[in-house]
Inverse folding.
C-alpha cells in the first residue's frame, strides 16, 4: 500500500514537472477543484474551487459553447473529451476530461495543459466572413499546428500549411492529391452532415478525435478542431490538428493508476477498518467499515482521540507512544462498540511525513478479528476446563513426543506418581529419569511399537519395584497421537495404579482355590450322605416289611381271640409301620430332589401341566374341581424336577379344601426381564398367619393326619427344587380362604 502511494506521488510530481495540471468536478455542486498547476493556467488564486460556469466564462466567446457541450456530454453520458480552448488573454489550453464509476459513485476529473507557441497568434474561430489571402497566409503558414482544408462533397484535400506537410510526410503536390479517407480510416471519418450541422460560419465548430495515418504508415492520435466555411456556394472544412498521442498514453497511465488506486481503496474499504489521524492525533476520517463494525457514526468520532473508541490498556499506550514518536506500530487493539459490545482489530499504524520529515497524518488500517478473539477465548476456556478435568481425574494422564519426552503430565502423574511439585519439573524428561533401566527399556519398547504402527494398546499391565522394594502394578492404555494430516507425532497414555487390586485378586484367587476345595469336599460329603440315606432307607425298610408281615399273620390267625381293645392296638401298630415306610420313601425322594443330573431340554410347560392334571384326574373328578391354565412358555429346563413342583402344588390346591366346596385352581405365567414367574392360585382353606414360617420346613404338618393325609415333605421338596434351579418360591394366603403359591425360574440355566 505504501509503495502504491509513493508511486502515485512520484507520478503526480512528474505531471507537475511536465506542466500538466489536474482538475476534478463535483457533479452535484458543479464546482471545479484544480491542482496548483491547473490554478496557474487559469490565473486564479482561489485555492478552494470555482464553479463550472465561471470556468467556461474564462475562455474566449467562440469556445464557450463547445466547452459547455463537452462538460455536458461528460456529466450526462460519460463521454470523454480532449480539446483546445483559448482564454480571454489568448492563453491556449488543452483540456482533457474523463470519468470513473465505482459502485454508486462516479468521479469526473481530467487534465489541463498550456500550449506555448514560438510565435503566439490568436486564432479567431469560427469566422463569420470569407478569409482573405493575407489572413489566410498568416493563419496557415505561421501556425505551429498542422492545418488543412478539404472539400465537403468530394472529401478532397484542397490546401494545407507547412506543419501539415511535415507531420504527414508528404510534398505539397502529394498532399493535395489525397482525400480525407487517405489520412483518416473510414471508420474514423464522421458523417459529412456532422461537419455542417451548425451551418457555415456558426460559432463553436466541431471537435473530432480519431487516428490519422502518415505517409510511412505511422498512426497517431489526432485531435482536430473543424470548422465549415462556404466559398462560392461550396462547403469546405478547415481542420486544425493536434497530435496528442503522448498525452493520451500519459493520461491512460494516469487513469490506470487512478483506477488502480481506486480499486485499492475500494478493496481496503470493503475489508479493513480505516482511521486517519491528523498531526494533533485527532480523528479526521473513519471509513464506512469502521462505522459498521463499531456502530459509531462519523460525526461521533471525528475530532476526538482514538481513546473514544479503543479501550485504554497497555496495547493502546504502546500504540500512542509509537505514534508520538512517528513510528510504525502493529498490534491488537480492543475497542468498545456504541452498544457496549466488544470488538478487536489487528491494526497497523503508519505515519505520513512531508519532505522535511514532519508527520502530518497517521493512517490506522486494521482487520476485524473479533470472531477470532472470541474463538480464542472460547478455546482457552475449553482448554482450561479440559485441563481442570484432566488434573482432577484419579488416573495418571501423560503425553509424549516421538523421542519419548513428556510434553504433558496431569497432576496425578507429575505429583502423585513422579513426585514433582510442578508439571514443568517433569517436562522434557523420559521414563529413564524415573524408572530402573530394565523397566524403562521395556516401557520404551512398547512406546516404539505404538509410534511405528500408529495404533493403540489397551489394558496393558506393567510392574516395577518401588524404592522400598515393593512391587507396584500399573494398568495402562496407550494410543498414537496424530496431527490433522494423520501423521504420528507422539502418544498419549492413561495409567492407573492397580497394586491394591492385584493384591485383592491374589487373595481372591486363594479364596477361590479354598472354595473349590471346600466344594469338592461338600460334593463328596453329599454323595456320601445320599448313599447313606439310600442305604439307611433300604435297611430300615427290611425290618418294617418283617413287622408288617408278621402283624398281618397275627391279625389273620388271632383276630378272633382279640377283644376290641386288642384289635385297636393292632391297628395302631400296623398304621405306624405304614407311616414309617412312607416317611422313609419321602426322605429318600427328598435327598434326590433338585439334582440337575437330568439333561436340560426345551419343554412346553403347557403340555407338562396337562400331564400333571391327567395324573390327578381321579381326584379332580371326585371333587368336580375347576382347573384354569393360562398361556405357558417354552423353557429349557430339566423335566422331572419342574414336573414334581407343579404336581405337588396342584395336589395341595385340590386336597386342602373345606368339605362341600368345589375347588377352583388357576395356573398362570408372567414373563419378567430375566426369568418367568408361575402362579398356582386356589380357593382352599388358606394358611394361618401363625403357621406361615413352617410351610417349607421338612416334615412340617399344619393339620392332623386324620383330616388331611400327607407327610409334610411336598412343599419342602418344591423349595429345594426351585432354589437348585436358581429361582425362588413363596405364597400369599389368608385365613378366610384362598392361597397363591408363586415361584420363579430363570430363562437361561
Amino acid at each position: 500500500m505504501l509503495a502504491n502511494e509513493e508511486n502515485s506521488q512520484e507520478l503526480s510530481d512528474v505531471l507537475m514537472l511536465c506542466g500538466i495540471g489536474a482538475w476534478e468536478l463535483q457533479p452535484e455542486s458543479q464546482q471545479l477543484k484544480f491542482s496548483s498547476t491547473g490554478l496557474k493556467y487559469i490565473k486564479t488564486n482561489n485555492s478552494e474551487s470555482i464553479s463550472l460556469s465561471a470556468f467556461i466564462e474564462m475562455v474566449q466567446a467562440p469556445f464557450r459553447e463547445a466547452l459547455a457541450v463537452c462538460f455536458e456530454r461528460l456529466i450526462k453520458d460519460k463521454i470523454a473529451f480532449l480539446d483546445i480552448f483559448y482564454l480571454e488573454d489568448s492563453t491556449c489550453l488543452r483540456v482533457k476530461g474523463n470519468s470513473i464509476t465505482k459502485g454508486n459513485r462516479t468521479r469526473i476529473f481530467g487534465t489541463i495543459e498550456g500550449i506555448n507557441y514560438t510565435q503566439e497568434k490568436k486564432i479567431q474561430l469560427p469566422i463569420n466572413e470569407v478569409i482573405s489571402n493575407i489572413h489566410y497566409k498568416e493563419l496557415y503558414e505561421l501556425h505551429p499546428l498542422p492545418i488543412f482544408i478539404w472539400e465537403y462533397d468530394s472529401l478532397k484535400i484542397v490546401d494545407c500549411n507547412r506543419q501539415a506537410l511535415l507531420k504527414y510526410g508528404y510534398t505539397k503536390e502529394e498532399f493535395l492529391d489525397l482525400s480525407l479517407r487517405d489520412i483518416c480510416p473510414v471508420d474514423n471519418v464522421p458523417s459529412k452532415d456532422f461537419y455542417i450541422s451548425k451551418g457555415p460560419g456558426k460559432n463553436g465548430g466541431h471537435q473530432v478525435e480519431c487516428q490519422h495515418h502518415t505517409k510511412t504508415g505511422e498512426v497517431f492520435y489526432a485531435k482536430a478542431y473543424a470548422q465549415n466555411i462556404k466559398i462560392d456556394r461550396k462547403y469546405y472544412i478547415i481542420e486544425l490538428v493536434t497530435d496528442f498521442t503522448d498525452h493520451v498514453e500519459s493520461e491512460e497511465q494516469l487513469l490506470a493508476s487512478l483506477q488502480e488506486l481506486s480499486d485499492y481503496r475500494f478493496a481496503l474499504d470493503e475489508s479493513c477498518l480505516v482511521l486517519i489521524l491528523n498531526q494533533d492525533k485527532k480523528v479526521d476520517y473513519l471509513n464506512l467499515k469502521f462505522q459498521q463494525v463499531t456502530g459509531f457514526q462519523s460525526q461521533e468520532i471525528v475530532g476526538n482521540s482514538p481513546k473514544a473508541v479503543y479501550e485504554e490498556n497497555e496495547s493502546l499506550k504502546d500504540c500512542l507512544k509509537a505514534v508520538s514518536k512517528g513510528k510504525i506500530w502493529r498490534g491488537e487493539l480492543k475497542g468498545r462498540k456504541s452498544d457496549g459490545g466488544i470488538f478487536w482489530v489487528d491494526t497497523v499504524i503508519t505515519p505520513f511525513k512531508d519532505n522535511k520529515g514532519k508527520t502530518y497524518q497517521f493512517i490506522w488500517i486494521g482487520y476485524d478479528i473479533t470472531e477470532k478473539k472470541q474463538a480464542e477465548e472460547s478455546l482457552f476456556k475449553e482448554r482450561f476446563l479440559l485441563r481442570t478435568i484432566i488434573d482432577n481425574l484419579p488416573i495418571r494422564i501423560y503425553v509424549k513426543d516421538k523421542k519419548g519426552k513428556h510434553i504433558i503430565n496431569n497432576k496425578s502423574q507429575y505429583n502423585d506418581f513422579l513426585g514433582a511439585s510442578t508439571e514443568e519439573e517433569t517436562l522434557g524428561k523420559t521414563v529413564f529419569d524415573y524408572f530402573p533401566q530394565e523397566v524403562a527399556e521395556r516401557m520404551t519398547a512398547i512406546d516404539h511399537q505404538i509410534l511405528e504402527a500408529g495404533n493403540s494398546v489397551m489394558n496393558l499391565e506393567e510392574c516395577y519395584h518401588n524404592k522400598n522394594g515393593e512391587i507396584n502394578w500399573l494398568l495402562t492404555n496407550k494410543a498414537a497421537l496424530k496431527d490433522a494430516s494423520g501423521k504420528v507425532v507422539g502418544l498419549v497414555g492413561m495409567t492407573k495404579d492397580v497394586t491394591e487390586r492385584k493384591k485383592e485378586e491374589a487373595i481372591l484367587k486363594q479364596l477361590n482355590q479354598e472354595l473349590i476345595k471346600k466344594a469338592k469336599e461338600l460334593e463328596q460329603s453329599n454323595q456320601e450322605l445320599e448313599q447313606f440315606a439310600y442305604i439307611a432307607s433300604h435297611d430300615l425298610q427290611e425290618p418294617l416289611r418283617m413287622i408288617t408281615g408278621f402283624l398281618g399273620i397275627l391279625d389273620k390267625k388271632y383276630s378272633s381271640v382279640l377283644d376290641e381293645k386288642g384289635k385297636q392296638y393292632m391297628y395302631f401298630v400296623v398304621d405306624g409301620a405304614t407311616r414309617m415306610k412312607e416317611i422313609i420313601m419321602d426322605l429318600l425322594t427328598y435327598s434326590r430332589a433338585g439334582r440337575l443330573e437330568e439333561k436340560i431340554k426345551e419343554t412346553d410347560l403347557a403340555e407338562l401341566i396337562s400331564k400333571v392334571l391327567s395324573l390327578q384326574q381321579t381326584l379332580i373328578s371326585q371333587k368336580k374341581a375347576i382347573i384354569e391354565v393360562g398361556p405357558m412358555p417354552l423353557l429349557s429346563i430339566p423335566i422331572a424336577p419342574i414336573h414334581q413342583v407343579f404336581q405337588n402344588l396342584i395336589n395341595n390346591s385340590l386336597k386342602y379344601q373345606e368339605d362341600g366346596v368345589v375347588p377352583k385352581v388357576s395356573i398362570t405365567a408372567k414373563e419378567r426381564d430375566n426369568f418367568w414367574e408361575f402362579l398356582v392360585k386356589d380357593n382352599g382353606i388358606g394358611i394361618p398367619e401363625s403357621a406361615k414360617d413352617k410351610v417349607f420346613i421338612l416334615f412340617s404338618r399344619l393339620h392332623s393326619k386324620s383330616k388331611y393325609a400327607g407327610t409334610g415333605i411336598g412343599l419342602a421338596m418344591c423349595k429345594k427344587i426351585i432354589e437348585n434351579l436358581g429361582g425362588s418360591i413363596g405364597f400369599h394366603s389368608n385365613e378366610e380362604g384362598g392361597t397363591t403359591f408363586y415361584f420363579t425360574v430363570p430363562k437361561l440355566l
Notes: The chain has six domains: 2-115, 133-250, 272-374, 393-494, 503-591, 597-746. Residues 503-591 form one domain. The radius of gyration is 60 Å. The first strand starts at residue 20 and ends at 26.
